[in-house]
Structures are given as C-alpha cells and as structure tokens.
From TrEMBL:
GO terms for molecular function: dCTP deaminase activity. GO terms for biological process: dUTP biosynthetic process. The keyword Hydrolase applies. It holds the Pfam family DCD. It comes from Micromonospora auratinigra. PANTHER family: DCTP DEAMINASE (PTHR42680:SF3). Keywords: Hydrolase, Nucleotide metabolism. This is dCTP deaminase. It comes from the Bacteria.
Amino acid sequence: MILTGHEIRSRIEADDIVVTPFDPDFINPNSIDLTLDDRVLRYRDPVIDPRVEPEVVEEKIPEDGLLLEPMSFCLGSSREVVGSTKYVPLVHAKSSTARAGLFVHVTADLIDIGSIGTITFQLYSTLALRVYRGMRIAQMTFWKPQGEITLYDGKYQGSAGPQKSMIFRDRHWETLTS
C-alpha cells in the first residue's frame, strides 16, 4: 500500500518517516520531492572493476549550474536526509526531469527499510542538460511493508553526500571460485 501525500506529511510529523530538511511545499499527491545537493562524483577509471575500490573525482555544482554532457554519468545526492524504520522508500525521477533527458536512479530505486541518509542519485544524461543545486530532481514514495521487519544495516547506512559504488566490499565471488 502506497502512502498518500497527506499521510507522508502525517508520518513525517510523527517521526515515522525522516525527511530533513522538510518543506511541506514538496509534498505531492503520493510522494515528496527531493532536491539535488551541491556536489557530484565522477568515476576516474574508464573501466570499473568490481573487485577494486573505484577512484572518483568530486565536483562542486557552480551557481550557474553544472553541464552534463550527452551520454555522461555521475553520482549526485539529495540535500535531504531521508528514510524510515516503518515504511519502505522508493526513489523515482520526476517526470519533468525525465522529459529533459535525465535518468535519475532508474536501476536502484528501492531503499531498504531502516536506511537513513542522503540518497545517491545515479545521473545519466541522454541530452546536454544543466543541473543546479537545490533543483527538484527526484521524488520519493513510501510503502507499508507486510511481515516481520529486519532493518537495514549495510555499507551505505548513514550516507552523507554522493556515495561511489562499494561493490568491491562484496567478496561473495571469491567463495564461488574456490
């Protein structure tokens, strides 16, 4: 069951959902808007090896915006710290962002229940597009779980700012090849 915008606001006010800072004007009929923070990460290596920690370069988003080149990829993050121990958050692109040619968080939209932190956005631009800090770039919905809850306690817990891939910490393939 998805929460309505009115219920999202009510659950934020009851501290069942975390959205900090909270702007009630960002509430939609069944979601809340998230804004882009002030920096992005870009991978340095042309090939990502999942067994090796990737090198990244951090860029500040200037006042006049950051130009994303066509077919480029970077990691941004929400300005807001979000999450819940009672509801399952999902991140979606805003339709206006998608219509401008920017894919936001398309392949990893499920946020585990109990995860509290900023959201890392996977930004993939299909067209040349300028992004600005503070722009409404995504929206989050909240879903009521059914069954026993196990809270997230993984490698991205407490995220602050954009987070590079930490797949290199997942060493499960070593047991498969032994």
